What we know:
Residues 89-113 are annotated as: Disordered. Residues 21-85 form the CSD domain. Pfam families: CSD. This is Cold shock domain-containing protein. InterPro entries: Cold_shock_domain (IPR050181), CSD (IPR011129), CSP_DNA-bd (IPR002059), NA-bd_OB-fold (IPR012340). The protein is α+β, with helices and mostly antiparallel strands and 162 residues long. It has 2 domains: 1-90, CATH 2.40.50.140; 103-162, no CATH class. It has 2 helices and 9 strands; from the N terminus they run E-E-E-E-E-E-E-E-E-H-H. The strands form 2 sheets. Strands 1, 2, 3, 4, 5, 6 and 7 form a 7-stranded antiparallel beta sheet that branches. Strands 8-9 form a two-stranded antiparallel ribbon. The chain starts with 7 loop residues before the first strand and ends in a 6-residue tail after the last helix. Mean pLDDT is 77; it is low at 1-7 and 93-103.
Amino acid sequence: MVPFRGWAPDEGGFQRLGVRMVAGRVVRFDGTRGYGFIAPEDGGEDVFLHVNDLLIPEESVRSGLVVEFEVETGERGLKASGIRLPEGERQPVARRHQEAAPRTAMSDENGHPMCDVLSPEEYRRDVTELLLTASPQLTAEQILTIRGALVKFSEGHGWVED
């Protein structure tokens, strides 16, 4: 990551006027609602992303896109601002939103239904999507708390494994 003019090196990123700049990857973005989440590359909790804080075209934002952004602490938790592509990155080609392919129900050799075992990352992504769809007024902190409890519960039942 290359610093911008006026930025000073800081542990885990760059610092300017009490705002930290970090790199991360878009975990989820709902263009209809205008918000989503970014997973910081240095770990930690996901950061809320709002369409008004984008410095790149909204159409180019999709899951997996690597971005740089400033982290601010808001009333509801961490919030990204000044969201842009890392220096030297080309503008991604916008793609239309594609729905995930439905999962096919699997059966064992006796015809008994089996369930998918997801990686923790897949499970977190699915749970985040479900929570945002079911209850859009949840804060990022509430989503992280609920999601964390669900992951622990699911790991205990063998529904999630590395």
